[in-house]
Every structure is written in C-alpha cells, then in structure tokens.
DNA sequence: GGTGCCCTGTGG
DNA sequence: CCACAGGGCACC
C-alpha cells in the first residue's frame, strides 16, 4: 500500500522512538517476512545492537546499527511498522516484535505478508534487497526533464508503466502515478516515447510537486499514528482521481473520470483534460 | 515485455 | 461468489 510519502511518514514517526536505543530482544512469529533463509542469523545480528540512525531510499526503510550493519524493510502492500509502549494491545498479523532497552516495542504487522526485512552486515555488498538498482529520488536535483527524457524517450512502454518503474524514479506507486499524470494532463497509456520535451518537464515538476503535497498531508500526531496502526495515511481527502472512476473530473471540465487498466494496474484518468 | 505468483481482506 | 487491492519478484 504505502508509496514514498507514506514510507517517509513511517520513518518520521518511528525514528525518534528507536534511535539511541538498544535491541534487548526480538521475536519472529512468522519467518516469511524475514528474507534470509535462516531467521536465527537475522536475530543474532540484531540482538544487542543499537539503532544509530534511520533513512529512506525509495520505498525502503533503512535502520543503521552500531555494528555498521543495516536493517532494511520494504512494506510492500500491507506492511505496518509502529513503536508502541510495552504491553500495548496486540496488533493483528504481527510477525516481528523488536523490544528495546527502554521498554518500547517496534512492531511489524502485515496482513498479506508481502513485506520483507533484510539485515546487511557491515561491508556486505547489497545484492539482495534490490535497492542498488533504484532510480533517482524524486527530489534529487538530477531528477529533471532531461533525466526522464533519457530513460523514457526510447521506451515502448506507457508513461504510467515508466512512472511505476522503480529503476527510473524511486518511490512512485499506483495512486500517485495517476495523480501525477492527471496534474500533468497526460494520458496514462500514452507511449513514453511520444512525450514532448515540454511534457517531460511537466511530469518532472509534478512528480516533485504531488509527492511533496501528499507527504505534507500525511503529517500525523504520534497518538493518531498509533491509533491508525501506521496505516492511516490521510491522503484520501486530497486525491483528485485515484479511486474516483465514474465521478466528474475535479478540474470542472465536465467530463467523467474513466477507470481502466494500464500495465496491469487499475488506472483513472480524465478523457478531456489528459491528452 | 508479458504472465503468474506471493497472501488476506473487502466490496460489489 | 469473484474481482480487486497503494508492490515487486521470478519466470518465460
């Protein structure tokens, strides 16, 4: 479920509760969310370590350990990460609980179990998470019209498929690709190679603009984050097209939004505003 | 590049 | 009941 703005929100809400804290214990109740064949090595590398910082790359969360190791998490569709007080009420589908030295518990729940944890030891080259082949971050200064042009102008894929391709720009998912393309006035099924230079510029600008907008809208208090179990993303009141097929275009153009499938993903667009 | 698959829950 | 869900991988 979560796309970049949601993952960044998870990072911001969880980080203050874990940095500086040491892992006292960890319990895996479902090893399928641990990417390593042997979860006990995962636990061995984690227990006793201190969290020194955290960061994000695309939709991956990175937790840096004092050992020089790196705990990596991808939430995929339904992953939720929350820091709770000790003895907080059980959260359904909890697969990993990391207990910290101040009593806080870092809990991972994931209904569909698509999410994954990895643990990279210091100096271990990362050939397992997929992070090393990610494209630029949306707000990287190099993520501009020329960058998109270079990676997309010979592609026979649709522009939407390219926006969803994490090797091009990291962090865009199905909701925000639709929002970006509506704001850009570009049909999702347009071939990427058909975009003009002006359109590449518009898309580059709207990627930054829309993701910034939704990141800001996702701001949430610690209390409400815990109540919502980290999945109350608060973007829905502000979505213009996603999930709104059959409704009037929010631009007031008079057309009705169309729901279709592009690149195997549900997609909504305005047949009048998007060319 | 297409397709299936990993899973569970929800809505039509 | 089936279709679908905000992700990404392995496999042709």
Care to describe what's here?
The chain is an alpha+beta fold and about 280 residues long. The chain is built from 7 helices and 10 strands. The chain has helices spanning about 5-20, 40-45, 145-150, 160-165, 175-185, 195-215, 220-225, and strands at about 25-30, 50-55, 60-65, 70-75, 80-85, 95-100, 105-110, 115-120, 260, 265-270. It has a 4-stranded antiparallel β-sheet with strand order 1-6-7-5. It is globular, with a radius of gyration of 20 Å. The structure holds a DNA duplex (12 and 12 nucleotides).
Task: Write a concise keyword list for the protein shown above.
alpha+beta; 27% helix; DNA-binding; 7 helices; single chain; 275 residues; four-stranded antiparallel sheet
Task: Write the element-wise H/E pattern from the N-terminal end onward.
Answer: HEHEEEEEEEHHHHHEE
H/I helix tally:
7
Gyration radius (Cα, Å) is 20 Å
**What's the overall geometry?**
globular
Which spans have pLDDT < 50 for at least 5 consecutive residues?
A: none
For the secondary structure, the number of strands is 10
| Helical percentage | 25-40%
Quote the average pLDDT. 96
Structural class: alpha+beta
**Strand order of the main beta sheet, please?**
1-6-7-5
- How far the N terminus sits from the C terminus, by CA atoms, comes to 28 Å
Proportion of β residues? 15-25%
Give a quick account of the main beta sheet: strands, pairing sense, barrel closure: 4 strands, antiparallel
Question: Quick recap of the structure?
Answer:
The protein has helices spanning 4-18, 39-46, 145-152, 159-164, 174-184, 197-217, 222-227, and strands at residues 23-28, 51-57, 60-65, 70-74, 79-84, 94-100, 105-110, 116-120, 258-262, 265-269. It has 275 residues and is an alpha+beta fold.
């Amino acid at each position: 479920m979560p796309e970049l703005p949601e993952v960044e929100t998870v990072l911001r809400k969880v980080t203050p509760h874990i940095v500086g804290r040491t892992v006292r214990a960890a319990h895996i109740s479902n090893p399928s969310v641990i990417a390593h064949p042997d979860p006990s090595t995962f636990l061995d590398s984690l227990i006793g370590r201190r969290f020194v910082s955290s960061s994000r790359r695309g939709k991956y969360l990175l937790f840096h350990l004092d050992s020089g190791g790196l705990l990596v998490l991808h939430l995929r569709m339904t992953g939720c990460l929350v820091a709770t007080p000790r003895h907080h009420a059980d959260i359904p589908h909890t697969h990993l609980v990391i207990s910290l030295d101040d009593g806080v518990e870092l809990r991972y729940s994931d209904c569909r179990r698509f999410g994954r944890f990895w643990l990279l030891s210091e100096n271990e080259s990362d050939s397992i998470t997929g992070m090393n082949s990610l494209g630029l971050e949306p707000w990287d200064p190099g993520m501009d019209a020329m960058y998109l042009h270079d990676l997309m102008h010979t592609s026979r894929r649709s522009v939407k498929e390219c926006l969803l391709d994490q090797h091009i720009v990291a962090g865009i998912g199905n909701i925000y690709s639709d929002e970006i393309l509506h704001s850009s006035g570009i049909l999702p099924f347009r071939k990427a190679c058909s975009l003009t230079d002006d359109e590449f510029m518009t898309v580059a600008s709207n990627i930054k603009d829309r993701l910034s907008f939704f990141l800001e809208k996702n701001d949430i208090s610690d209390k409400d984050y815990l109540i919502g179990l980290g999945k109350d993303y608060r973007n829905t009141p502000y979505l213009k097209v996603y999930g709104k097929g059959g409704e009037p275009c929010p631009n007031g153009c008079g057309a009705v939004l169309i729901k279709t499938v592009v690149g195997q993903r549900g997609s909504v667009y305005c047949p009048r505003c998007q060319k």
